[in-house]
Write a structure and sequence with these properties.
The structure holds 2 protein chains of 2 kinds. By secondary structure, chain A is mainly alpha-helical. Chain A is built from 5 helices and 3 strands, in the order H-H-H-E-H-H-E-E. Chain A has one domain. In chain A, strands 1-3-2 form a 3-stranded mixed β-sheet, with no helix packed on it. The longest helix of chain A has 17 residues. The termini of chain A are far apart. In chain B, 80% of the residues lie in helices and 0% in strands. Chain B is built from 15 helices and no strands. The model of chain B has no long low-confidence stretch (mean pLDDT 91). The chains are: A mainly alpha, B mainly alpha. At the A-B interface, helix 1 and helix 2 of A face helix 6, helix 8, helix 13 and helix 15 of B.
C-alpha cells in the first residue's frame, strides 16, 4: 500500500516537473532579431565613418534581399570594413578584393571552421 | 618508555587508518545525491560519474537520471537526452523506464529534435499510471504541434487533460479552431506574388519597407539591363546584368515567403502559448 502511495506521489511530482509549459513555450516561433553590426561601431575618423555608412547601406538595401550566404566569418562586407579600419582605406580595399576572390568555398582545408556558424574563419 | 612509544604508535596508525579510509560506493552515491538535491551540480556530477565507473550497475539508473537532470539544468539537452537514454537502459521496473523515457523525450523536445521525441513517446507502454499517460500525451501534443501536424496535436493535448477538468477540452478545441482559421499571410501566395512582381509578396505580408527595397533593387537592375541591351547588345545585358537580377529577384521572392511564414508563425505562436497553459494536466 505504501509503495503504491509512493509511486502515485512520485509520478505526480514527475508530472509537475515535466509539464512545465515554460520549457516548451519558446520552441515554435523564433522571432528574427534585427542584426547588430559591431563592425560599424567605434569609428575613430571620418574615413571609417564613411565606410561604416557604406557598409550599413549595403547591408540594408542589398544584402537583406540576397539569398546567398558568404562562406566566411566575418562575411565579406564585414571583412571589408574591418580591413579598412585595421589597415587604412587603400590596403583595406586591396585586402577586401583579395577576400572576394577567395570567397568561393573551394579551399575549405586552408581555414579553420567555426563549428557554431559552420563557416570558415578568416579575419583581416 | 619504549612500550609507551609502541602503544602510542599503534593508536596513531589505527586512527590514521580510520581517518584515511576511502568512501565506499554507497557513500559516494549518497554524496552525489545530496549534492544534486542541494544544487551543487559540479560536485554531484563528479561523484555520480565515479559511482557509474566503479559500480557494478546497482546505482546506474538513478545516477544517470540525476546526471540527465543536471545536464537539463545547464541547458545541455542533447547530453541530457543521452543520460536519460542510459538511465532507461539501466532501469528494471516499468515506471522508472517510463519516467526516464519521458525525461529523454522532454530533453529532445527542448533540443528541438521533435521527430526523435516522437519516436520515444510513441514507443512507450500504455500500461502506466494516469499521470504518466497524461504527461506523455502532453509531450506528444507539443511534438506534433512543432512539426505542424495540428490535427494530431489537438488529439494528444485533449488526452493530456485529466477527466475532472473536462471543460478544458472545449477550450482546447476552440483554440485549435482559431489556429486553423489563421490563413493570412500565406507563404506560398507571398512567394508567387513576388515572382509575379518583386516586392508584391512583401507588401501582402505587411512588410512595406522590404517590399519597396525589393521593388527598387530588382527594378533598378531590370532598367540597367534594358539600357545595356538597347545601347550595346542583348548578350552584353545577359552577361553583365542577368546574374545580378537573378540573385536579387530569387532572393526577393524567397524572402517574401520567409516574411509571410514568420508573420503567420508569430500569430500561431500566441495560440500555442494558450494551448500549453490550457492543456497542462495539473
Amino acid at each position: 500500500m505504501k509503495s503504491i502511495i509512493f509511486l502515485c506521489l512520485l509520478s505526480s511530482a514527475l508530472q509537475a516537473q515535466l509539464i512545465d509549459a515554460s520549457h516548451y513555450s519558446g520552441l515554435y516561433h523564433h522571432p528574427v532579431e534585427p542584426p547588430k553590426y559591431q563592425a560599424a561601431k567605434n569609428n575613430t575618423n571620418e574615413i571609417q565613418m564613411v565606410f561604416s555608412g557604406l557598409f550599413l547601406f549595403y547591408k540594408f538595401a542589398f544584402s537583406s534581399q540576397d539569398f546567398n550566404k558568404c562562406t566566411f566569418h566575418p562575411s565579406c562586407s564585414e571583412f571589408g570594413l574591418l580591413a579598412v579600419k585595421k589597415h587604412g582605406a587603400l590596403l583595406g580595399m586591396l585586402s577586401t578584393l583579395d577576400r572576394l576572390q577567395r570567397c568561393n568555398g573551394m579551399s575549405p582545408e586552408l581555414y579553420t571552421i567555426d563549428p557554431e556558424r559552420m563557416l570558415l574563419i578568416d579575419h583581416p | 618508555m619504549p612500550t609507551l612509544r609502541i602503544v602510542f604508535g599503534l593508536i596513531l596508525s589505527l586512527l590514521t587508518q580510520i581517518a584515511l579510509q576511502g568512501q565506499n560506493l554507497e557513500e559516494t552515491f549518497q554524496l552525489g545525491k545530496t549534492n544534486f538535491l542541494m544544487g551543487n551540480d559540479q560536485a554531484a556530477s563528479l561523484a555520480l560519474e565515479r559511482v557509474i565507473f566503479f559500480g557494478q550497475g546497482q546505482y546506474d539508473a538513478q545516477a544517470f537520471e540525476m546526471l540527465g537532470q543536471i545536464s537539463s539544468r545547464a541547458s545541455q539537452f542533447e547530453q541530457a537526452a543521452r543520460y536519460f537514454g542510459s538511465a532507461v537502459q539501466a532501469s528494471f521496473d516499468e515506471i522508472t523506464v517510463a519516467r526516464n523515457t519521458l525525461f529523454k523525450a522532454s530533453a529532445q523536445l527542448r533540443n528541438e529534435d521533435f521527430q526523435l521525441a516522437l519516436i520515444e513517446l510513441l514507443g512507450m507502454s500504455d500500461a502506466l499510471p494516469d499521470s504518466l499517460i497524461q504527461a506523455r500525451e502532453f509531450l506528444l501534443g507539443v511534438s506534433y504541434f512543432n512539426i505542424q501536424n495540428f490535427a494530431e496535436s489537438r488529439q494528444h493535448f485533449r488526452g493530456a487533460i485529466p477527466p475532472e477538468a473536462k471543460n478544458r477540452i472545449g477550450q482546447i478545441d476552440s483554440l485549435f479552431n482559431a489556429l486553423e482559421s489563421i490563413k493570412h499571410p500565406n507563404p506560398k501566395k507571398a512567394k508567387l506574388m513576388s515572382i509575379f512582381l518583386p516586392g508584391l509578396g512583401q507588401f501582402y505580408a505587411g512588410d512595406i519597407k522590404n517590399g519597396i527595397n525589393s521593388l527598387l533593387l530588382t527594378g533598378g537592375f531590370f532598367t540597367v539591363g534594358f539600357i545595356v541591351a538597347i545601347n550595346y547588345s542583348l548578350v552584353d545585358a545577359m552577361v553583365a546584368v542577368v546574374p545580378w537580377i537573378q540573385r536579387y529577384y530569387v532572393g526577393g521572392f524567397n524572402r517574401a515567403a520567409g516574411i509571410a511564414e514568420n508573420k503567420k508563425k508569430s500569430k500561431q505562436d500566441k495560440l500555442y502559448q494558450l494551448i500549453l497553459l490550457t492543456a497542462r494536466p495539473n
